[in-house]
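note to self: the first set is below, dont mix up w the second
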Amino acid sequence: MPQLLLATNNAGKLAEYDVLLEGCGWEVMTPRDLGIDTEVDETGETYEANATMKARRGAEVSGLVTLADDSGIEIEAIDGEPGVRSARFLGEDATYAERFAEIQRKLAGEPRERRRARFRCVIAVADPRTGVVRTAEGEVFGLIAESPAGEGGFGYDPVFWVPQRSATMADLPEHQKNIISHRARAVAGARQILKELLYEHERNEGDGNWEPGTR
C-alpha cells in the first residue's frame, strides 16, 4: 500500500483524518512518524495558498504524496474575520478562551442574524512525481453561539452553533461532526483525488515506473 503523508501534527486534525480517510487505499503517515519537519510559515492570503505551501513542503521533504489543509472561521458581522488568520487570531500564543472572549466582545449587542458564520477548509494534495497540486474545499454554515459549549472537537468548535442540530460543533458526537463539518466535506473531494492518484500509482507500478511512496 502506498504511503500518504498527512502534513500536520495537530492532534485534533489527526483524530478527524484518521476517521475521514479510513479505507482510502493509502497508508497515512505523519511528519512525526517519519521524523521530518514539514512546518512552513503560513504567509498566504487564502486558505488555498497556505494549504498548497504545506502540501508542497511535505512532498519535497518526504518524497510522498502529501495532503495538507488550511481552515478557518469567518464571521459576517466582523467582515469575515478571523478567516485565514484564525489560528493566529490575537497572536499565535493566544488561548482559544481569549479568542472566544474577543469575538463575543466584537459581537456584543448584535442580533442573531448578524452572528452568522461559516467554517471553511481547503485541502491540497501534492504529487512529488509530477509536482502537481490539486485542491478540494468544503464549508458549513452556522452562527456564533452566545457562549462556548461542548467538550468535543477543537479550535473554534465550541462557539460554532449548528442550527440544524441545535448544538455547537463541539457538542456533536464525533460521527455526526464527521458528516457535516467543513473538513469532512473537503475530504469528500480529496478522496476522489487520492483515488485517481492511486490508479496512476497502480498503473505506473505495473510499468515499473512508480517511485515515490511505494514501501
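second set (the one i keep forgetting abt)
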Amino acid sequence: MSQNDSKFSSEILPFQSFDLGEFVVQTIQNDPTLQPSTKHQYIKAIENYLVTGGSLADPQALTEYALTVGSSTRSFLAAAVTRMAQELELLAKGSATPDNIDIIQAAVFRAQALQKTIKIRQPQGERAHTWLTWFEAEQLLDACQRRVSGKAEMRIFAQRDRLAIGLMMAAGLRREEAASLQFTDIVKQNERYVLNVKGKGAKDRVVPISERLAEAIIDWQFLVSAEGLILRSLGRNKVPKESISTTGLYNIVQKRGAMIGKPELQPHDLRRTYAELGRRAGVQISQISKLLGHASIETTQEYLNIELDLEMTISDFVPF
C-alpha cells in the first residue's frame, strides 16, 4: 500500500482518518448495483495499480499508469476510481459545518477532479461484436472433447466445459447466471425442459431448452453425483468443487475459443450467438428479447446489430 494512500484521508478530509485502499475496496464491495464479476474486475484493477507503488491520491500517477494498460483494464480502473471519488465527495459533504465549509469545499473539488483523472476514449462507429456461425458453434463444442495437444480430453473436463459453453450459447445465459444455476432450476413443463433463471437485477425468467441440452445437464449430474450448483471447478484431483467462478467460465471460453482460432472469444459473444442464430432461424425479436431477459427491444437490437429499415416497414402492409 502506498504511503501516500495512508495519509490521503488527512489531506483531502482532515476530519477523517482511514486507509484509502481499503476504503475503495469496501466501497466497491458494498455497491448493490454491481455484479460480483464486475466487483472482481474493479478490485483487481485497483490492486494491480497499488502494487506499482502508485497512490490513489495522485492524479498524475493514475494518468501515467492508465496509459500503460489495455483499454478494458483502464475502464475498470477509471470506474473504480470514480466510485471512490463519489463516495469521498458524499463523505465530505455529509461532514460539512459552518466552521469547516472552506475545507469541505476544497475536499469536494479534489474528489471531483479525481473522477476525471483517467480518460477513456470512446470507440467510434458501431461496436465490434462477435457472433459465431452455426458451423463455428459446432466447432467450439467439439473443441471441448480434446486438449490443446490434440489428445482426447478427460471425460469430466470435456463434459463440464461443453455444458458450460452450452448454457451460455444454447440457453443464452450470462456467465453470472450460468455460475449460479442449480440442478433444481431445470424442470419439465408440457413435454419441454425449461430453466428457471435468476436474472440480472433480480429479474427471473424461464428459458426453454433443447432436449440435447437437458440431457447434457442430467448426464453431468449423474457423472458428478452432486446436488446444488450445476457448474463446478475441478481441482487437481479432478474432483468437482462446490462452485465455479465467473472468471473460471471466462477462462473456459478463452481456452476453447483459441482452439478454433478465436482466442479473443468472450462469454458474452456466446450469448450474442444464441440470439443471432435464433433470429436467423426465424424466432421473433420480441421472443429473443424475452429469452435473454432484456428490459427493452432496443438492447436486443444492439445484440443483433439490427437497424431500423426506413425504406420498408410493417405499416406499408396494413390497410389504412
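remember for set 2: The CA atoms of residues 289 and 296 lie 7 Å apart.
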